[in-house]
Design a protein that fits this description.
membrane, repeat, SWEET_rpt, mainly alpha, 10 helices, SWEET, 0% strand
Length: 225
């Protein structure tokens, strides 16, 4: 059963990490990065690295392999994003150097339990990334800010890894994936509201509340942030 769940989880992890392709492909033609969350790309990549390190340190190979594969795919998307932004070499030199040094530090000086806790913390921090796109989606009531392909893949991925965590009784895997499902479900609800599927008043109060604090709402698209 573990192998089946990790097989499905690996396939969904790949799907999640392939999802940014269409958005980046469109952005490379339009030179408009407004609808792509740079914060999401970075935090998703760092999260996968943290879980890969945890899997490697704890010799949990069924967790290490998909996480490492997803991390490598994430690097490609970040490079592509910064190629569009015309600063790929400088950014990636700093980014990869920081990741390499930090990885060596974690592997050599942190035990596996602490590393698992660190991966959990990084996962929770990663859950703030959707706010970058959720806020303008709420303010403008525009579903284009939420990449539904990524969100659906994420919620399915979260369900599978949650089941895997329960099966092997690993709280480090259970807790972040449980919250991933909740956060993604919230975004799907906002997407449905912005598309007009849900009643107008579902998020109207929240939308009115955050409008004065939004910097993206009611603005024309910004070229090359």
């Amino acid at each position: 059963m573990e192998i089946i769940l990790t097989g499905i989880g690996t396939a969904l992890t790949i799907a999640v990490n392939l999802a940014p392709f269409s958005s980046l492909h469109s952005a490379s033609k339009s030179h408009n990065l407004e609808e792509i969350s740079h914060l999401y790309l970075l935090l998703a990549n760092i999260t996968q690295l943290a879980w890969a390190l945890y899997g490697f340190k704890g010799k949990i190979w069924l967790a290490f392999i998909p996480s490492m594969f997803a991390f490598c795919i994430g690097i490609i998307w970040i490079v592509w994003y910064h190629m569009i932004n015309k600063n790929a070499f400088v950014f990636m030199l700093k980014y990869t150097s920081a990741l390499f040094g930090f990885s060596l530090l974690l592997l050599n000086f942190i035990n596996v339990e602490t590393l698992g806790l660190f991966a959990d913390i990084i996962s929770f921090i990663g859950m703030i990334a959707p706010l970058e796109q959720v806020i303008p989606a709420l303010v403008e009531k525009n579903h284009r800010y939420i990449d539904i392909k990524i969100i659906v893949a994420c919620v399915l991925n979260g369900f599978v890894w949650l089941a895997y965590g329960i099966l092997i009784n690993n709280n480090f895997i259970i807790v972040p994936n449980m919250f991933t499902v909740l956060v993604c479900s919230f975004q799907i609800t906002i997407y449905g509201w912005a598309k007009g599927v849900l009643p107008e008043g579902t998020f109207a109060l929240l939308s009115d509340y955050i409008k004065p604090y939004s910097q993206k709402g009611n603005k024309e698209p910004i070229l090359i942030i």
